Amino acid sequence: MDSESKHIGREYCIEGVISCYQIILRMMVHRLSRRQIPSVMELARSTLTEIYSPSTFIAIQEQCPEGCLVAAEGENVIGFIMGMETKPGKGKILMLAVRPEFRRQGIGSMLLKSLLRQFTVRGIFSITLETRANNTAAMAFYRAHGFEVKKIVPKFYTDDTDAYEMCKSV
Q: pTM, whole model, 2 decimals?
C-alpha cells in the first residue's frame, strides 16, 4: 500500500497537499452505493464520450459490487471505476472517470490500484479494457500502470471510433 494511503475497513483514505494552496484533500475510495449511482452517472455523462443508461450502472453494480468503486470527498463523488469478472480468472475495466478539476492528482491511479487489488483477491489476474485509439492521455495513463496494447478494435464506439484493447497480467 502507498505511504499516502490508509486502509480503513473496506475504504482507503489518502491525504495530500494540492499545489501551492496547501489545501488538504481528504478522499475516500470505497464501494459504490446505490445512492451514489446518480452522481456517478452525471460524472460519466460529463466526462466520457459514450452515453450509458441508468440500467447499465445498476446492472454492473448489482452483478459485481466489489468492482464498482468511487473516490469521494465527503458526499461529493470525484471519480469512479467499474470493472467485473468476465470469465474465471479474467476481468475487464469498463469505465474510469475523474472530475477534470481533480485530474493529475493520483485519484485515477488510486481507483485503478484499488480495483486491481479487488480483482486479485477474487483470483482475477488477467485484466483487459478498451480505450479510444485517439485518447492519448488514457493510453499514457494505462501504459504507466503496466497495460499494453493487445489489438485494435475497429469501429468499437458508437461514433465508429476505433479502440485499443489493452491488457495486463497481475
A: 0.82
